[in-house]
Design goal:
A hairpin with a 2-residue loop joins strand 6 and strand 7. The radius of gyration is 18 Å and the shape is elongated. The longest helix has 15 residues. The protein has a three-stranded antiparallel sheet with strand order 1-2-3. It is an alpha+beta fold and about 150 residues long. About 15% of the residues lie in helices and about 25% in strands. It has one domain. The N and C termini lie far apart (about 35 Å).
């Protein structure tokens, strides 16, 4: 069971990069994403997977481009593994008896103090992973699937 974080804007959906390869059957491929949460931190994960559209909680899929065959999967993973995954960003504050965003573990923001936006899978995918794959020349943007 997954609960939405009340401090994060809603609605939010788990964002991944899915590379359709058919390597394990019809429309299968590789999912690349970060997993975890704001309390424990996140880690990069990749796995052979089914088409995300078959998942009961599927929301949307957007075609980003193609990969060079020579870059899959080794160079793809090399680039994504080097990106910092979202760190631990919340912890239990014994003073307020709540789980709160922190500056660093044990150092909490004061009431009214400006806080940076928290980073989860969406921000990692959109602001780090996709730009890194484009910059490395691994992801080649095209408007239509081949």
């Amino acid at each position: 069971m997954v609960m939405q974080d009340p401090e994060m804007p809603s609605p939010r959906y788990h964002n991944t990069i899915f590379i359709e390869t058919w390597e394990d059957g019809y429309k299968s491929g590789r999912t690349c994403h970060v997993i975890g949460d704001l309390v424990t931190g996140m880690t990069y994960n990749t796995r052979i997977d089914q088409d995300p559209e078959l998942d009961a909680i599927f929301f949307a899929k957007h075609f980003l481009g193609i990969l060079k065959t020579s870059d899959y999967p080794d160079r793809l993973n090399e680039v994504l593994e080097k990106l910092p995954a979202p760190p631990k960003q919340k912890s239990f504050n014994p003073r307020t008896m709540r789980t709160e965003q922190h500056k660093s573990p044990g150092v909490f923001y004061e009431p009214g103090e400006e806080r940076p936006p928290m980073v989860k899978c969406t921000e990692w995918t959109m602001n780090q992973a996709i730009p890194a794959l484009l910059e490395a020349g691994i992801l080649i943007q095209t408007s239509e699937p081949p």
